[in-house]
Sequence to fold (348 residues):
Amino acid sequence: MKNIILTGDRPTGKLHIGHYVGSLKRRVELQNSDKFDEIYVMIADAQALTDNFDNPDKVRANITEVALDYLACGIDPKKSTIFVQSHVAELTELTFYYMNLVTLARLERNPTVKTEIRQKGFGASLPMGFLTYPVSQTADITAFKANVVPVGEDQLPMLEQAREIVRSFNGLYGETLVEPKAVLPENKSCLRLPGTDGMAKMSKSLGNCIYLSDSADEIKRKVMGMYTDPNHVKVTDPGNTSENPTFIYLDAFSTDEHFAKYLPEYANLSEMKAHYERGGLGDMKVKKLLNNVMQETLEPIRIRREEFAKDIPAVWEMLKQGSEYAKSVAAQTLSEVKRAMKINYFEK
Ligand code: TRP
Fold:
């Protein structure tokens, strides 16, 4: 069996450091491991429209932003096919057939979708497109016969749904589709990076994100303004590190080399945490280290992003070529699906 990756992001905003540690970094490592036969990275504009259908300008503008974020992080169009979902019409056709294999009750049970519906306050005006996006996501994955899907933790219910549809399809029509599995980050702090304000998740609407494209000044301002442990008032007070976003970010980003370079009085993060927990270590010192770590991590990404941003037509050309290739692959799967479903009437 071939090893094939498919993953993607909705173009609803620029990508932030939560996307980076949650999935992007891993994708680049997998891409460069040479263990995969094919890698597809999709900009999920059709899915983004399921809850932004009234704002196509936003989705359109963010296609460029997400593509630049991908290139900046090291997703290499020579090794990975980067494409735009809406330009692979075969995905829509597959979605239509998969709809038969899922019940309304099942879609309503999806915990990620349930939370999103609540947060977006759809109420009775819930668009069908939004409720059914996990089915379309199954089409995205199966069209490329992907077996590995590197995603954030919130996407696990989508993968579960995809596996169910694949099993149901293969059971009814014969072995055709490949069951995918999710690949999550190994570092627990990377699973769901909190916002700079300590909220559970980074989100554009909460204004608590550090973006991959942020300037050095913006990064510094955001790090210095981060929420820490509210009970750590005086430097001498014992502090909490496990629910403290500054330490969670250090968990996700810092290495022993960072300590050697910026704060040699500690050999590593555990020593620094122990000091904070017993008292005597101020937040300022923690934030200064974190700022150095974030600057060092994000600077090369920002520089590469600025380079790619100088030639936007080349970025669109890359997406166009990627989409054409993706379309040819999806068309192949679609014809296998139609044959399995016995609707290949005019095939010779
Ligand atoms: N739902 C994903 C997100 O919000 C984007 C996505 C669409 C996706 N189709 C996919 C991810 C297929 C993995 C596989 O980020």
User: Anything to note?
Assistant: The pocket of tryptophan is lined by residues 6-10, 44, 47, 137, 140-141, 149, 151, 155 (CB under 6 Å).
